[in-house]
Amino acid sequence: MNKLLPETSEHDYRNDRLDAETPTLNASTAKELITRSPLHAWQFHPRLGGSERDGTVSTENGSLIHALVLGAGRKIVAIDGDDFRTKAAKEARAVALEAGQIPVIASKLKFAEATAAVLKRRIADLGVQLDGQSEVTGMWRSPEGVLCRCRFDHLPKEPSDILEFKTCESAHPQAIQRAIELFGYDIAAAAYSEAHATIHPTPRPVRYRWIFAECEPPHAVTIVRFEGTMATLGNRRWSRAKAIWQRCLAEGRWPGYTDGEIAVEASEWAIKRETEIEYNANPPPEF
Q: Cα–Cα distance between 53 and 16 in angstroms, integer?
């Protein structure tokens, strides 16, 4: 049960086709459980609600750079034309997406390849080697008994290391901190660290690092360790997600934001603002 599945495609991973007896929990579903509700997690899980999220241009560009830097993952398909506005280009793009591929205008692919080459050089200059396996699926049972899945971006030759590659607008440490908390990267880090420690236990603790890379010049790269209070936060949120998931699966009930009627109190800011408006509209008499 606790194993790597190197031959599993990204399509099968995303659709939870791992021959597991129950739906598996991954970091994306855990984020929905924590930041939204069990109902949202149910809706977007491939073996439950089955809804798919619409991709965006920025997502596709990120996936393209991701695949070029790691040298693995979804196949890249070059499409002739100046953009995707022509009928032929639209149709070719749709066919590629349906096949789980990454469509890109041929002329833009050259720029993407140049960007990826710079980023790989930046990463190497920081002493980080992409010398192992990329895009590797893992499946494991957590200590609480939850069946989980993950897809490692890169597993270096060092047996206890994990590298996660993220494209971003800003690789400034403050921007990275906000992104980790906002997008639930800390939850994923906790899940992947647990997966690695369960599948391949070693005397050395798991070392999880993010590679944050800017796609625009000058292509700054920042390496970030998952430790300290960020690790504490991620582990707490991952544990909470597992508990919610376990309960919802057992009960077959996936509530939304609330279980019934609630009363919503006004914020202190709104009360203060209204008081100021009333005062300015009806000032007290001067003495």
A: 15
Q: Give 89's contacts (C-beta < 8 A, 6+ positions apart).
A: 79, 80, 81, 83, 105
Q: Is 274 exposed, middle or buried (0-12, 13-18, 19+ CB in 10 A)?
A: exposed
Q: Tens digit of pLDDT for each residue in 154-204?
A: 999 988 999 999 999 999 999 999 999 999 999 999 999 999 999 999 889
pTM of the complete model beyond 0.70: yes
DSSP 8-state code for residue 25: B
Residue holding tokens 């598996």?
Answer: 24
First to last CA, the chain: 81
Phi, psi of 133 (to 5 degrees): -105, 140
Residue with tokens 């995303």: 14
Residue type, 268: E
Cβ–Cβ < 8 Å for 222, 173: yes
Q: What is the pLDDT of residue 143?
A: 95
Cβ-based neighbour number of residue 271 at 10 Å = 11
H runs (alpha helix) in 82-218: 87-98, 106-125, 173-183, 185-199
SS3 143: coil
Residue recorded with tokens 């008081």: 275
More confident residue, 7 or 95: 7
100, pLDDT greater than 90: no
Pairing mode of beta strands 3-5, 102-105: unpaired
Is pLDDT at 97 greater than 90 in this prediction?
no
Which CATH number is associated with domain 3-257?
3.90.320.10
- Is residue 166 within 8 A of residue 13, CB to CB? The reply is no
Token look-up 């109902």 returns 39
